[in-house]
Amino acid sequence: MNFSIIIPTLNEEKTIEACLLALQPLRNNCEIIIVDGGSADNTRVVAESLVDKVITSEKGRARQMNNGARQANGDILIFLHADTSLPENALPLIQQQLGSRGKWGRFDIQLSGKHFMLKVIAQMMNWRSKLMGIATGDQVIFVTRQAFEAVGQYPEINLMEDIVLCKALKKISPPINLKAKVISSGRRWEHNGIYTTMLLMWSLRLRYFFGADPQTLAFLYTNGTFTSFRLNRLWGRIYPPTGD
Length: 244
Description:
Elements: E1 3-9, H1 13-23, E2 30-36, H2 43-47, E3 53-56, H3 61-70, E4 76-79, E5 84-85, H4 90-97, E6 104-112, H5 117-132, E7 141-144, H6 145-150, H7 161-169, E8 176-185, H8 187-192, H9 194-209, H10 214-222, H11 228-238
């Protein structure tokens, strides 16, 4: 099997070098593709000597990953975030399980950081994923090219693209749940507040379940630290008082 690791980036200058250096031992039978969504920093410059391809794409994680998949040569596609690292034996584990057990899957996750709740959150993510058969992008989704193309690739929406993809892939085969852990940065959780971020993520999933527009959810995700006061100020700028 040939592998392609596809990494969507946007202003990841501070994290991308460490991510790519860790992948260098895999390059004998795996190509590494960066799909940049128009970074304003030096992400592309840092990445160029450490990857096989650097692709420029319209911004949007789903669009970027689809563009990378279209230019990938591998039979197995691995979608990796720039702040996430694979376990050392990731490729052999995937190769052993694909085909005999299914067409796609994900890893368990560990969140890096000092707060004790990050371990609890990661464990909850792993349990929920196993129970529901749905993976998040942080858990590093891998899939055969055949299955990925059969479901029409990622839906090019602004958020929840991983959930929609997984639901489609479940119709082809159940997911492979690898217990080996990828390590993903807990920076967003710690920066925005552990409990605030938990509530935000639960809220976004619930809103999506009830039919909320992914573009609206993406705005809320990106601006997750806004207080209602700040949101009201923003709303006032968009729709100023009429002065009646």
